[in-house]
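Sample entry (317 residues):
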Amino acid sequence: MAGVWVFGENRELTLELLGIGRILAAEMGTTLSAFLVGDREQAKGYISRGADEILFLPPLQEGQSLDACIPVIAGEAAKADPDILLFAASMRGRDLAARIAAKLDTGLCGGCVAIRFDKASKTFEAERLAYGGAAVQKVAFTKRPAMAAIPPRTFEPAKEESGREGQVRELPAAPPSTARVVEKKAKERKTTNLPDARVVVCAGRGFDKKEDLALVTQLADALGGEVGCTRPISEELHWLPEELCIGLSGISVKPELYIGLGVSGQIQHMTGIRGAKVVVAVNKDENAPIFGAADLGIVGNLYEVGPKLIEELKKTP
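Predicted structure, serialized as tokens:
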């Protein structure tokens, strides 16, 4: 048996994998299967977005984590022999993918940002960023099954198609595990929709002190957008929470408009805004790298330019 298999720990991640999975399955002339844990009602939604088969994992027992599914997933893959398995490279997904790859004695391309099927050689080729995003590494898969971990928001979610049919195949329940979830604590977040924001205003190291970041918030509010930041702001100075960090070590955004205030434009940050449609840069250093990628650039002090932008936006009906 062959085919493309995808595993995302939630609906959003699964739909993104179904998007690229449909493309690969069509190129190969094979089927697309999606794992689903616990909530059988989502099966129809996955089928309508391209899945030919749902590999249903029964609900986990109280205290069990997704780790308990590893033997089941690996065992099914060893028996069914899919062509490729795609995992969402969330923190948990990366761990699952690596452990399943070890059980299947195959390779894993982590941080995969592009993947294609070569019909001539009947092999997969993938790309991932290297040297902090300064280069693209091409990866060839030499063992079966091929496995890739794909960062969230790399591919567009699969779109719904009416009239599609598929089957649901129930897999064995996850076996008892010695590791159990004792307690879950929600992490306090300042924002929940930065990755989906249409407008992102980003604070860079050009700010002198934490209190001045109010300028970023005011500009974002004027534009109906969200606030983001570069790595020094969140991880070195701790002026903003880590979940607002945009870049290679943070999150990726794909806004219609990105405005960087005092952002120098190092490659590690620019990697996180590659999907932005319009990039606006404000920096007093005319040689700042960000101007090389900006659609619009303003050479000037952010403390002078920022208030003027806010003032003009307030005049706009």
